Amino acid sequence: MNFEERALTFSCNGNWLYGVLSLPESSVSRGVLIVVGGPQYRAGSHRQFTLLARHLAAHGVPVLRFDYRGMGDSEGDVRTFEDLHDDLHCAIDSFLNEVPSLNELVIWGLCDAASAALFYAHQDKRVTGLVLLNPWARTNEGAAKVYLKHYYIARLFELRLWSKILQGRFNYSEAIRSFSKTVGAVLKQKKSTVAITNMDGIKSCDRAPLPERMFTGLNRFGGRLLLITSGNDLTAQEFLDVVNGSPEWQKLLASPRVSRLNLPEATHTFSRREWRDQVAVWTREWIESW
User: Fold this and answer.
1) Measured in whole angstroms, how far is the alpha carbon of residue 228 from the centre of its chain?
2) Which of 149, 175, 201, 225 has the greatest CB tally within 10 Å of its CB?
3) Residue 184 neighbours by CB under 8 Å, 6+ apart
4) Is 19 helix (H, G, I), strand (E, B) or coil?
5) Measured CA distances, 32 to 55, 56, 77, 191 (Å)
6) For residue 161, what are the CA distances in angstroms to 63, 153, 176, 184, 188?
7) DSSP-assigned beta bridge partners for residue 261
8) Closest CA to 18 of 79, 78, 70
9) E-assigned strands of 152-252?
């Protein structure tokens, strides 16, 4: 299907934000909002967001990809993924104004953009679906554990490591310091968190660890979810370790409204063409399936 791309400018709390609309000549009632994650802008790593938007638009799905405040071309102070509520709300308002045929949206996010989507989605009834890739569930203990489990053990089987050792080029002191630091983080006692109760008697999770706040967001979201993970990515492994260690997470992701897919060899940003193409096809097929 033919489609066009055009720039979109909209305001958010006094700052101008910039994005790109990919509009098919005949669109469906469901669109996709691509949220930027990490230190990048609306094109995405390896132009993944651009290519994804064009693939979806060529199959009739309107897409908006944009730079939130402080990122890329957009104005405003730099902010983290935990402070994107207004940016997402303004982007969705603008998207629906530009494409009146839309009555529901899917938010697509990689890494900490996936976490931001979980914080936001349950607060906006227009969001009926989420596509989350390698969600960022980072904690100090979690990062240390995943390095011990998936990095250090894997290194023992690397020929390059043993070649360095046999040639006398291995830095033992640096390796010991790094390993000790990682073990220390694992053994560090977790700080207790206290829920805050507001004036309406509702408990807030603002002080809870990131994985708990992500769980709360998804638990409150009533729409559909497509979870895609990479096999060669410590961020994905940390998230999956959280899931595998929590009966609550396992029960939530076992729901019929959740679809899970994995690319065993893929890196965090799906750096090869075949991985990016597979993600685009999976995203489109999932959107078309409901």
Assistant:
1) 10
2) 225
3) 144
4) strand
5) 12, 9, 26, 38
6) 45, 12, 14, 23, 29
7) 228
8) 70
9) 196-197, 203-204, 224-230
Report the C-alpha dihedral over residues 140, 143, 145, 148, rounded to 10 degrees: -130
The answer to whether residues 18 and 73 touch, using CB atoms and an 8 Å cutoff, is yes
Give the ranges where 147-203 is alpha helix by DSSP (H): 153-155, 159-166, 172-187
**Angstrom distance (rounded) from CA 91 to CA 87:** 6
| Tens digit of each residue's pLDDT, the chain (290 residues) | 899 999 999 999 999 999 999 999 987 899 999 999 888 899 999 999 999 999 999 999 999 999 999 999 999 999 999 999 999 999 999 999 999 999 999 999 999 999 999 999 999 999 999 999 999 998 877 666 765 665 555 555 566 745 665 666 656 566 556 555 545 554 554 443 333 333 344 444 456 899 999 999 999 999 999 999 999 999 999 999 999 999 999 999 999 999 999 999 999 999 999 999 999 999 999 999 99
List of residues 6+ apart from 261 with CB closer than 8 A: 226, 227, 228, 229, 282
Whether the CB-CB separation of 59 and 1 falls below 8 Å is answered with yes
Distances (CA, A) of 56 to 1, 43, 92, 171, 283: 10, 15, 18, 48, 8
Of 264, 284, 270, nearest to 46 (Cα)?
A: 270
pTM higher than 0.90 for the full model? Answer: no
b/e burial code for range 232-271 (CB count within 10 A of at least 16 → b): bbbbbbbbbbbbeeeeebeebbeeeeebeeebeebbbbbe
Neighbour count for residue 12 (Cβ, 10 Å): 21
